[in-house]
Amino acid sequence: MGADVQLRLFPPARPLVDRLGPGWFRALPRCPGVYRMLDESGRVLYVGKALDLRVRLASYRSTQGQARKTVRLLHQVARIDIETCPDEPSARLRENHLIRTLRPPFNRVGTWPRAALYVRVSMDDSCVLQIQCTREPVPGDYGAFRPGVRLACAAMQRLGWRLLHPGASAAGMPRGLMSEAGPWLLCHPAAAGWADAIRAYWSGESPGWVTRCLFELALQETPFDDAWTTHDLGVVSEFFGRGPARNLWLRGVAGGERAQLLPEELDDLPIVAEHPAREGTRPTAGGGNL
Questions:
Q1: What is the pLDDT of residues 175-200, one digit of tens each?
Q2: For the packed helices 223-242 and 244-254, what is the interaxial angle rounded to 10 degrees?
Q3: Does the pLDDT of residue 156 top 70, yes or no?
Q4: Which of these, 117, 122, 111, lies nearest to 135 by C-alpha position?
Q5: Would 155 disulfide with which of 118, 190, 215, 235, CB 3.0-4.6 Å?
Q6: 223-242 vs 208-216: helix axis angle to the nearest 10?
Q7: Distance separating alpha carbons of residues 20 and 208, to the nearest angstrom
Q8: Inter-axis angle of helices 195-203 and 208-216, to 10 degrees?
Q9: Long-range pairs for 237-241 at CB < 8 Å and ≥24 separation?
Q10: Residues 6+ away with beta carbon under 8 Å from 213
Q11: Residue 281 — pLDDT band, cuts 50, 70, 90?
């Protein structure tokens, strides 16, 4: 036995077996479904999905090998409700819906759809190009986007400033450009010509504005400036793939002339896309296994 293995003085606890009995586990159906773990007061603590309910729930019979968070959960569970589903996609969609509506404390992902943001790109008569984030979209806004969108907006503004001030060092950049709070303003007549390219970026149609930055900001005067520009280019390039471009694909999955997505659709539409036969199913949306 290895020296790093700690011997147990007592056998691993089996709180669910003690409360529910071994027969409860043997009677579980072997089919896809979702399950809700509740405490003594009836509060839902955790929602999960399973391809095989009996196999999945059997993994909770003992606390041995479980993460500390799971051990805490198992000691609080007084009842488990199950709901069978016709197939795995249905179970995943149902899990997403329950997590969003019930917001169980032991689920971490998808419990707060309002964390998603939309991006608004506007241009006024003074040639001020403004990019801002909002939770309340209006027609013409882009999104919804998950965390990281503010970083992309701030990096886009800094890159715009570098384009407008060729040869200037990042050390002379206005302090406000370091903020992720927004809104982000580009006040220069030349910025007016970027509006279409920036809108194409946020719509997912083209990363052409990033390509322009790559070309025009390729050579920096100092290693510091080069590192700063490379970082910001990396931020906007990486976010384009997992944000605007992904949303363009998801809007196609949703069908119709969709300009925006609901926050919950960021979780549900990929499930629908994996199973084309279910395209007629209205996705309902977060998820997360413990």
A1: 777 776 666 666 666 677 788 899 99
A2: 10
A3: yes
A4: 117
A5: 235
A6: 170
A7: 59
A8: 120
A9: 237/207, 237/210, 239/148, 239/149, 239/151, 239/152, 240/152, 240/201, 240/204, 240/207, 240/210
A10: 159, 162, 163, 229, 233, 236
A11: very low
How far is it, in rounded angstroms, from Cα 48 to Cα 43?
Answer: 15
Q: Which residue has the tokens 């570098």?
A: 162
What's residue 190's pLDDT?
67
How would CATH label the architecture of 15-111?
3-Layer(aba) Sandwich (3.40)
N residues, the chain: 290
End-to-end CA distance of the chain: 30
Nearest CA among 93, 97, 92, 139 for reference residue 118 = 139
Decide if 186 contacts 128 (C-beta within 8 A).
yes
| Residue extents of the structural domains in the chain | 15-111, 115-246
